[in-house]
Amino acid sequence: MFGKSLGDEGDDEVHIDLSPMIDCIFILLIFFIVSTVFVEETGVKVNKPDVGAAASALDSNSILLAVTKDDKVFYGGESIGIQGIIGKIKPLLAENPDMPVIIQGDKEATHGTVQRVHGQAMLAGAQKDKISVSTK
């Protein structure tokens, strides 16, 4: 006979092949890893002044410089001082001259320090219209 009758008790085991599902999961995992955008933080908390509705969304492809209330300049969690700005951001601006520079100034930081950071960013090659001071 070609078929089975209802009375036959076979020892056939049923297997579910999970390899296509695992392949699909790995493809999705690789896609999400490759398409993820990482935002680089400055590494210190800056108490920025509040200007209400004038705050804009942070561009993920930008250079972030922080000025603390002690007038220390940070980039990537590292204290670089005003003299270290050119050395840190000039190579980044050489790769992408249109990259914006965002200065996060603490509201208790002196205006002169924030302006010196602005001037050093311009000397490093940042375009004047691409430098901004971040607030809340």
TrEMBL record:
Name where it's found: Cell membrane
Tell me the keywords, alphabetical order.
Answer: Cell membrane, Membrane, Protein transport, Transmembrane, Transmembrane helix, Transport
Name the membrane topology term: Single-pass membrane protein; Single-pass type II membrane protein
Q: Which Pfam families match?
A: ExbD
- TM segments? 20-39
Which superkingdom, per the lineage? Answer: Bacteria
Q: Specify whether Ligase is a keyword of the entry.
A: no
The entry assigns this protein to a family as follows:
Belongs to the ExbD/TolR family.
Provide the protein name.
Tol-Pal system protein TolR
Q: Which organism is it from?
A: Haloferula sargassicola
